[in-house]
Design brief:
Layout (H helix, E strand, L loop, with lengths): L35 H6 L10 H24 L4 H25 L7 H18 L4 H16 L3 H4 L17
Helix pairs in contact: 2-3, 2-5, 4-5
């Protein structure tokens, strides 16, 4: 066989495969996959910055104000042009809240609260596409936001994706 000796395993690990073309493939555990990029996106300790809590409170207040005004405008039949600034303010404040959370750790995207953000974005997007159903869609988005923000910390920070590989951000505020 062209001078290459046949592969003779010297171990009993069934997960280790025979080498192919002179290379040896050893399946790695998820912990071994934690490289620099993974750990920078999903740190063991969430990152913090001075004034984080105050920033969050101000952004939340702006988000609730703009989202409530947007919903009320739709309920009372205001013209699209007068509602556009409130839509932009709602989307901008919500996106900024998510980005501040992601600054701490991308684990938010794997948690229930992060998933709720994408569901609410989809509902707001659908409200723009299915105009006659906009009020029920926006009411549903608002109610999901209320329920998600008032869940217990255990439920809100429950990891749906990559469980066991990411550390949820369980800080208050």
């Amino acid at each position: 066989m062209s001078g290459i000796p046949a592969y003779q395993p010297t171990h009993t690990n069934p997960r280790r495969r025979a080498p192919q073309a002179g290379l040896c493939f050893v399946p790695m555990s998820a912990a071994q996959h934690r490289g620099r990029v993974f750990l920078s996106l999903f740190p063991e300790q969430p990152r913090d910055f001075p004034g984080r809590r105050a920033t969050f409170m101000a952004l939340r207040a702006l988000h609730v104000l703009s989202g409530g005004t947007l919903l009320g405008g739709h309920i009372f039949g205001l013209h699209r042009d007068s509602l556009l600034p409130w839509l932009v303010a709602t989307l901008a404040s919500g996106t900024t809240l998510l980005l501040v959370d992601m600054l701490a750790s991308f684990a938010v995207l794997c948690e229930v609260r992060g998933t709720m953000v994408f569901v609410k974005l989809a509902l707001v997007g659908l409200a723009g596409i299915y105009w006659p159903a906009r009020v029920p869609l926006l009411v549903t988005a608002l109610l999901l936001g209320v329920f998600a923000s008032h869940m217990s910390g255990r439920q809100r920070h429950f990891v749906l994706f990559l469980r066991g590989h990411v550390v949820p951000n369980r800080r208050k505020g």
